[in-house]
Write a structure and sequence with these properties.
mainly alpha, about 100 residues
């Protein structure tokens, strides 16, 4: 699949889906373009997951920093399971500590 095909396929997704895909794949440049167009980057999917949720879950620190420091998105959004970005990070750290102690 060439780049033009990928662009054409993305054009069929609603903008909020494109934003979440960019966050999940670590595409900070795409997030920057939408931010410069004054598009709200606090959008969520059907489960309430925001670009901050998905970029942090995938380990895209550059996206997380951009969203929090530059875009000033809500740093504590809640998804359907009432999981926040910060609580998820705390759970991940607890799992790492537990695994290392075994």
């Amino acid at each position: 699949m060439n780049n033009w095909t990928k662009v054409q396929e993305k054009a069929h997704y609603p903008i909020h889906s494109q934003i979440l895909l960019a966050a999940a794949s670590g595409d900070v440049r795409a997030l920057q373009r939408w931010w410069l167009q004054d598009i709200d980057l606090n959008v969520g999917d059907y489960d309430g997951r925001t670009p901050l949720h998905v970029s942090s879950a995938e380990g895209h620190l550059e996206c997380v920093r951009f969203l929090v420091e530059t875009c000033r998105v809500n740093p504590n959004p809640k998804d359907r399971c009432v999981t926040t970005y910060l609580s998820k990070k705390k759970q991940d750290m607890q799992a790492v500590v537990l695994a290392s102690s075994i």
